[in-house]
Amino acid sequence: ANDVVYILEANPRASRTVPLVSKVCGISMVRIATQLMLGKRISDMELERLSIPHFGVKEAVFPFNMFHEVDPLLGPEMRSTGEVLGMADSFGLAFYKAQEATQLPLPSEGTVLITISEEDKPFVLPVAKQFKDIGFNIKATKGTNQFLLSHGIESESILKMQEGRPNILDSIKNGEINLVVNTPSGKQSKHDDSYIRKAAIKYKIPYITTVAAAAATVKGIAAFQKNQGQVKSLQSYHADIKKAQVVM
């Protein structure tokens, strides 16, 4: 806060992030860290400030597909069982690849379900508009649907489970929804909305629980639509880093 960095903890070990950062930057972070732990100074190591021309996105892997009755909302406790990396020449495509590596790839077309908590509604407007711009249909629960329509964004109303049938659960089961954007209503809500997230897991539909992730998601899908993400070797990425230093 206020440009002050607070260190929560410092452990003399390698985290799961270290090999991913090393791959993105083309630097052996473990070697450098080991030398520092053995007494070397950073000023003695002749390190250069690199210009990285590509993007790397780290994504956590969760075991929720094995536990369909567990609400996938995250808290401070460790729930991930691994991490994956997406790399590309744009942030959007790197994000798309990272999601694909978790075995729950993002759809490139179809219908997105949007059901947003009251405090998140103002922030979801640009995201919803982008989904329409890239060709997605939008289904939204009553409050979200009215909010989107009042701001000129076309969407179709869909019933919550307690409101009758056919409802969200039916649409998910029938394969009518390809992506779920659901920010939780919290304990103040009269009804539990965890069934939406649990159903998405059960039927292997990608789900998003924050507006920030939804914004990254629509950016990733748009990037994939433009460029299908050709395979590029790690060596090629590292060669591009060297070329970027020459240009500098």
From TrEMBL:
Q: Tell me the CDD domains matching this sequence.
A: MGS_CPS_II
Q: Which Pfam families match?
A: MGS (PF02142)
Top-level enzyme category: ligase
The GO molecular function terms of this record are: ATP binding; carbamoyl-phosphate synthase (glutamine-hydrolyzing) activity; metal ion binding
Task: Please give the InterPro entries that the UniProt record associates with this protein.
Answer: CPAse_ATP-bd, CPSase_dom, MGS-like_dom, MGS-like_dom_sf, MGS_CPS_CarB
Q: Which SUPFAM superfamilies match?
A: Glutathione synthetase ATP-binding domain-like, Methylglyoxal synthase-like
* Biological process, per Gene Ontology: 'de novo' UMP biosynthetic process; glutamine metabolic process; L-arginine biosynthetic process
Q: In which pathway does it act?
A: Amino-acid biosynthesis; L-arginine biosynthesis; carbamoyl phosphate from bicarbonate: step 1/1
**Mind telling me which GO cellular component terms the entry cites?**
cytoplasm
User: Domain MGS-like: where?
Assistant: 104-244
Q: Which SMART domains match?
A: MGS
Q: Which UniProt keywords apply?
A: Amino-acid biosynthesis, Arginine biosynthesis, ATP-binding, Ligase, Magnesium, Manganese, Metal-binding, Nucleotide-binding, Pyrimidine biosynthesis
Q: What EC number(s) is this enzyme filed under?
A: 6.3.5.5
Give the similarity note.
Belongs to the CarB family.
Q: PANTHER family attached here?
A: CARBAMOYL-PHOSPHATE SYNTHASE [AMMONIA], MITOCHONDRIAL (PTHR11405:SF53), CARBAMOYLTRANSFERASE FAMILY MEMBER (PTHR11405)
Name the UniProt record assigns to this protein: carbamoyl-phosphate synthase (glutamine-hydrolyzing)
